[in-house]
Amino acid sequence: MQAVPAGTAIVDSIHLSSLVADATAHFKAGRLQEAAASYREIVSMQPGQVEALRALSYLALKAGDAAGAREHARLAVQAAPEDARLWHGLGRLCRECKDEAGAIEAYERAVRLQPDLLDAWISLGVACRAADPQRALRCYERVLELEPDNQGALVNVSNVLLDLGHRERAEERLRAGLERLPRSGVVLMQLGKMLGVQRRVEEAAALFRRAMEIEAVATEAAVSLAMLERAVGRHHEAVASLREVVRREPGKAEGHRTLGELLAEIGEYGAAVAALRRSVQIDPGVKEVHFRLSVILRMGGALSAAREAAQCALALDPAFLPARCALADIAAAEGDTDTGARIYDELIALPELTLAALGNFLSLSN
């Protein structure tokens, strides 16, 4: 039997099928570099292979190469210019690359091709909001025409109305939304926060309590209620709210962190340290929490533990000025004035040590 020469349609088709299978297997197994190599070979054989281009775009973005991801997305829309979702994806990558004009152009193309593509209308509104809030408002209103109970669009409408100074209209829209969607945690939270900013404390608190009954936003609502009570001087009520949060959801670092900060404000330093330590056990990657723990430990005289907490913050971000200041303060408290003075001299020499940076440090320390 005569062999089929390489380069014929049959051999190429078999090879292409093998490459697709390899790429898919690599991708599913998490071997992303091997997957990318297979997809690149597919594209070399079929430059307009949309699925391979989409995969390469995703892999490039995952690797931190937003510009490369955008270029693959451009090639994909060139291969399938009538696919609205590809244009929407290109728009999102343009925004990732800070190309706002390119993003808006891509979103516009997406909604022209598919006028009921809600995600593209929302993305277009987001992209337009800063420069043209009226146009952003029209985009979100279009979403609500297509889907009247779209909670995200309703919240976005209220945000743009607030941008435009139409506070009463924003409240009216949210209240109307709650009449249709009385258990919408998103809308309850948005209206509660808006009223809280206006110091309409009892109305806002009632909305947060309603939101606390909805699992998806229960923790956020309880924290918001506590922050509201804190803002009006009801610290003990705020602590009680947060204790309920951590009792109900002990695995949420945010609740323990906020509880610790509030306990410190009312002088319960031992309990504050315990809460902040629990927070960093759950989520050790937040430098500000390590720093706050350092400050409270320093106030209580636990200098060795305070130094360790500050060093944890610096391990996460070696340039974190508040933690470096804390180490200088701890050294001075231990009587090691030479070390404290050296650290402060190093800080003063930093070009980024502006008045704003000092102000941030003071606000975190208090």
Description:
This protein is mostly helical. The protein has 21 helices and no strands.
Please outline what is shown here.
By secondary structure, the protein is mainly α. Helices cover 77% and strands 0% of the residues. Helix 18 packs antiparallel against helix 19 (321-333).
The backbone outline, from C-alpha atoms, is globular
Low-confidence stretches: 1-6, 353-365
Radius of gyration using CA atoms only? 27 Å
Beta-strand level of the residues, as a percent range? Answer: under 5%
* Helical coverage, percent range: over 70%
Arithmetic mean of pLDDT: 86
Keywords:
single chain; 366 residues; mainly alpha; 21 helices; 77% helix; 0% strand
How are the SSEs placed, and which strands pair?
Blueprint (H helix, E strand, L loop, with lengths): L8 H20 L3 H14 L4 H13 L3 H14 L4 H13 L3 H14 L4 H11 L4 H14 L4 H13 L3 H14 L4 H13 L3 H11 L6 H14 L3 H14 L4 H13 L3 H14 L4 H13 L3 H14 L4 H13 L3 H12 L6 H11 L1
Helix pairs in contact: 1-2, 2-3, 3-4, 4-5, 5-6, 5-7, 6-7, 7-8, 8-9, 9-10, 10-11, 11-12, 11-13, 12-13, 13-14, 14-15, 15-16, 16-17, 17-18, 17-19, 18-19, 19-20
